[in-house]
Every structure is written in structure tokens, then in C-alpha cells.
Amino acid sequence: MSSGLIIAAPASGSGKTVITLGLIVALKRAGFDVAAAKVGPDYIDPGFLSAAAGARCLNLDPWAMRPQTLSGICARLGETAPLILCEGVMGLFDGATGGSGSTADLASLTGWPVILVVDVRGQAASAAALARGFITFRNDIKFAGVLFNRTGGEGHCRAIRHAMEESLPEVPILGFLPRTADLALPERHLGLVQAREHDEIGTLLDRAGNLIEDNVDLAVVEKSARPTHSRQPSTSTPLPPLGQHIAIARDEAFSFAYDSVLDGWRRQDAELSFFSPLADEAPDDHADAVYLPGGYPELHADRLAENRHFRTGLEAAANRAFIYGECGGFMALGTGLIDRHGARHSMAGLLPLETSFAKPKLHLGYRRAAAKSQTPLGPVGTRFTGHEFHYSTAQHPSGNAKALFACEDSSGIDVGTAGLVAGRVAGSFLHLIDQAQ
Questions:
Q1: Residue 399 Cα distances to 14, 103, 422, angstroms
Q2: CATH 3.40.50.1100 at 3-227, yes or no
């Protein structure tokens, strides 16, 4: 049976991504087999975590995933390695409305202890008070210990240690990590730059591993992991397959696909093939479904507009196959995309949709979606959970398209319809994660 640990923090920006990367690298150097996971709907961090672990990082989302889906993904992670390191999201207790779906919820569900990362810039004894508050906030969570990040000199560390020994003597201090400005990860409008775009990913991982090796007792960390709770029957099929042979766009413009979804399609006997729109490749002629996942098509809109083989291949596929796009893939199926400079680029023209980044507006949050149109995803009324995160605005010119979903936010408030369906082509700005209960 696999065991796990969760790396969490009081807030975003505390350094938990770099620390998780360093822990994975250092433990692998020490001879441990490690699998990586990420809490929440993030696509960016899993790319870095996958690079560190040498295997696909899987998302675990206690708000969007059914308990049996979470159980199935944990089981798959356990097949990969006996030790699972999972990076949290935001602050430990932060989630959707009301805090549901937080990293703390996942810790409670799985039984994995939490390593609390505390950024101690500008504080000393106060860091111990902060740790005490977090550790005593809920009684259904185990803590492996505390890692104090971005420390100053020895005097700073002594002051923190003294305060911890006075207030939390039973909680292990796992290490003091000095300030390391050269380990910052670059950012883009949706978060971090993707791992495949980071020119020095190997150097970054080496430095992160060295930081952990020099300042953390890895044996104590490994022994702190606890077996995964198995309270629910498991499923490995979050979403129904779009077809028996699904051609999937995969390159720098279209890379935001959940591996748990793709694996679920494989486990339902669907064949998956991949093609690159940026390389002007068309989907496989034998595919009965085409999937364009999210990504950054706005950064490559000029190339996509020029790639005739890709576009004619999509047009041909629309006569025989179901085509489905999510977020960036949805934009690519529209008639045009206006970039942040105001330049318009022609897209595939399969849906009556114009998207624009000229006046960015954030659209963010979990969604519950019910199908308003029958597609290979399911009949009318089929319910899903998903996530929306983009800065584009959309216009739906007149056409024969119908709405794909009726949506609610995480509070249950009606937020209207989402997506379009026209013939065999469908898409929306939602990233579907699982079927709903």
C-alpha cells in the first residue's frame, strides 16, 4: 500500500512548489521511488512536478472529484511508487466557497500528514504562533512537521526554534531553508510558465534538490508518510470517452489536459493518438473524435491561422467525427481570435465564436454543469464538475449553434449557459474534471 505526504502552506507564495520539487528530487537521489500529485485544477505546477518525479503528476481535487474518483487516482499513484508527495493549493484551508475542496480536506480524506511550509521573512517567534494556529485549527488532520522557509542567519533560526520548543514541543522542525532568490519560478497570466517552456528546468530541479539535501533530514520526512485511507470504492473513469479513437491536440498551444481523464479513456478501451496543430498536423483520419484541450492559443494565434493542413483536417473531421474543445481549444474552433495587441487571427470557423484578449477580464471558478444538448459526453441532463480560468471575452455571432451546458458556480448560483454545439462540433471555456454525483 502506498503512503503519502502533503506539502502545504498558510498562503500562496510561501515557496511550496520549489520545496515540493526539491523534496522529490532529493528523495529520488536517496533511493526512494516517488510519485507526484497536485491538489486542485492546476495544469502548470504538475508539469514541473512531473519533470521532478520522472512520471506524470496527477491532480487530486476534493471539490470537483467524486470520492471514488479520488480513490481511483490515489490507487493509480500507488501503482507508480510507494511514496506519494502531493503539493497543496493556495493556503491549507482555502478552497471553493466555504472552504470546501481545500488541501486540508484532501489531507483528511487520504490520511496523509501535512508538512507545513512557513515563510518566515520579517518574523521569528511569530512564525511559531502562526504554525500553532494552523496545526490546532482542525483536529482531523495529521502534521508531519514544519519547514521554515526563507530564513536569515543562525540567530533567526535559533529564535524560531526556541519559540517552537516553547509552544509546540511535540511538532518536529523538519528544516530551516535559507533565502534563495535564484529558485523563483517565472509567471504568466494563468500562473507559472509551463515546465516545457523553462529553459533551465534541469538546473532548477538540481538546485531545489540541493537546497533540501543540505537543510532537511530526508529520513525523517520519509518515515512521516502514512498509508492512504481506502474508504471508498474506486473508479478510473472520470469522463466518458469522446469516441473509440480520440485524436488529441498536444503541443505548446494545447497542453492543458488532465492525465486522469486521458487514462480513464484508455481504461474504457479508447485508442488515443496525438497531433500538433502548431506543426500543421491534422488529426488522424481514422479517429471518430477530436479533442482540443486548453492551453495558450493566443500566444500562437498567427501560426494557427496560417496552418492550412491543420485547419482543413479539422474541417474534414467535422464531417465524420465529434470535435470537442475546452477553453483554448474552444477558442481555436471559433471564427477568430483577437490578441492582446488588437490583431485578429482567423481560426477554424467551426463554431460561431469570436474571442478577444484586447481587454482582458478574469473568469475564474469551479462550475457544476448540466448538458443542454446531447453529445458523446452524454444525454441532456448529464452532470459534470469543472473549472473555468481565462482572461478572454467572447462574442457569439448569430448562427445555428445551441448552448452546451447550463452552469452553476461552487455556491450553487446560476451563472447561465456555457459553450456551443453546432452539428458534430462542441466546446466551452470549462475544463471538465469529473462526472457529478
A1: 48, 43, 9
A2: no
Residue matched to cell numbers 478501451: 269
pLDDT in tens, 223-245: 999 999 876 677 778 999 999 99
> In degrees to the nearest 10, what's the CA dihedral of 146, 147, 148, 153?
120
Give the Cα separation of 148 and 326 in Å (integer).
Answer: 39
> Mean of the pLDDT values across residues 164-170?
97
Work out the average pLDDT over 26-47. Answer: 96
Helix (H) or strand (E) holding 417: strand 414-422
CB atoms closer than 10 angstroms to residue 314: 26
What is the pLDDT, as a whole number, of residue 192? 42
Q: How far apart are the first and last CA of the chain?
A: 27
Per CATH, the architecture of 245-435 is what?
3-Layer(aba) Sandwich (3.40)
Which pLDDT band holds residue 99 (cuts at 50, 70, 90)?
A: confident
Same fold, 3-227 and 245-435: yes
What is residue 197's DSSP assignment? G
Three-class SS state of 273: strand
**Angle at the Cα of 16 (from 13 to 18), degrees rounded to 5?**
100
Which of 74, 86, 327, 407 is catalytic? The answer is: 327
Query: What are 365's three cell numbers?
Result: 471558478
Q: Are 294 and 331 in contact (CB under 8 A)?
A: no
Grid cell in block for residue 261: 481523464
Predicted pLDDT of residue 186: 60
The residue to which cell 511550509 is assigned: 117
**Spans of all domains in the chain:** 3-227, 245-435
Indicate if the pLDDT at residue 312 is higher than 80: yes
Q: Please confirm, yes or no, whether 86 is among the known catalytic residues.
A: no
Mean pLDDT of 97-113: 92
Residue 118 predicted with pLDDT over 80: yes
Q: What is the structure's pLDDT at 191? A: 45
The pLDDT of residue 396 is 72
What angle separates helix 44-53 from helix 201-215, to the nearest 10 degrees?
70
Q: Is 359 exposed, middle or buried (0-12, 13-18, 19+ CB in 10 A)?
A: exposed
Q: How far is Cα of residue 60 from the mean position of the Cα atoms in its chain?
A: 8
